[in-house]
């Protein structure tokens, strides 16, 4: 199997690389990202990332929506958000400048033009610190987050404070009165995560997203947690 490295660099989180390989099962190019020894993301399966945006935005009423995406990655969540014609402003917060650079250089064929879309603002920042410090400069109709693998499977230990009642309340403070928070996870729904979200929002639940997996001949699944209407508003 031939692997072509499209970009490589050092980050505070370890060495990051963007690679392309031909998948003989699906008969197409697959782009994948490694961070250190960890396979961080892949274009092999993107249903969960797209559904994060669709499930989140389907719970938002109104027009002229402002949306914040935490984690740019390969761009599928941001791209799916832009497919909703109500979205007029999309801010994407990404900690790693290399990832932003991939999109500015259009290295990913599925998301060519994303960085140049006039509705899009790519911001180099640590989403977790932004939330922790209350540094958001406005409120949003929706906050969509796909950074860690799951609330208990973190890329960095200092991300853990987001997944508490207090952390979720800090996200809620970034939202409009009818705002929505959606969170992607690569693990099955965890009732404790829903309970904690429910401590900061009027309602919270978990959606299982299934998709065919030609590599196994069966189905795979992700989870999208959805919380609506910040509490005490």
From TrEMBL:
<protein>
    <submittedName>
        <fullName>Spermidine synthase</fullName>
    </submittedName>
</protein>
<keyword id="KW-0620">Polyamine biosynthesis</keyword>
<dbReference type="InterPro" id="IPR029063">
    <property type="entry name" value="SAM-dependent_MTases_sf"/>
</dbReference>
<dbReference type="Pfam" id="PF01564">
    <property type="entry name" value="Spermine_synth"/>
</dbReference>
<dbReference type="GO" id="GO:0006596">
    <property type="term" value="P:polyamine biosynthetic process"/>
</dbReference>
